[in-house]
Amino acid sequence: MKYTIDRQEKYNILKVENEKLDSTVSPELKSELQAIQQQGIQNMIVDLTEVKYIDSSGLSSLLVGNRVFTENKGTFILACVSDHAMKLIKISQLDKVLNILPTVEEAVDAVFLLEIETDLLGENE
Fold first, then answer.
1. What is the CATH topology of the domain spanning 3-124?
2. What are the beta bridge partners of residue 45?
3. First vs last Cα of the chain: how many Å apart?
4. pLDDT tens sequence across 49-96
5. What is the pTM of this model?
């Protein structure tokens, strides 16, 4: 699997650079997301700009990423999802489970808003 990681203080952006997110690359994506979370990264944005096709194993790897980040009180956001991938996500009713935003910029803004919200809630307790 080809990808790049942009490491920031509050989040990481993993940009998948494959046209297909299928059974040939999804195991590597799954293990990479788990490894990043284990490094203490709280918030992950997955940029799917270049991904044109996703199958069930690709969705599975994204669900694993969503689970490991949210279970550890982090955020997992998908950005720039193609029409084909979005159809599959909606058919599977995963649009109710996954946090999906149109652009990476909106995903970054969402991470910062959630961080502020978490900080405010922490102060109120």
1. Transcription Regulator spoIIAA (3.30.750)
2. 13, 77
3. 43
4. 999 999 999 999 999 999 999 999 899 999 999 999 999 999 999 999
5. 0.92
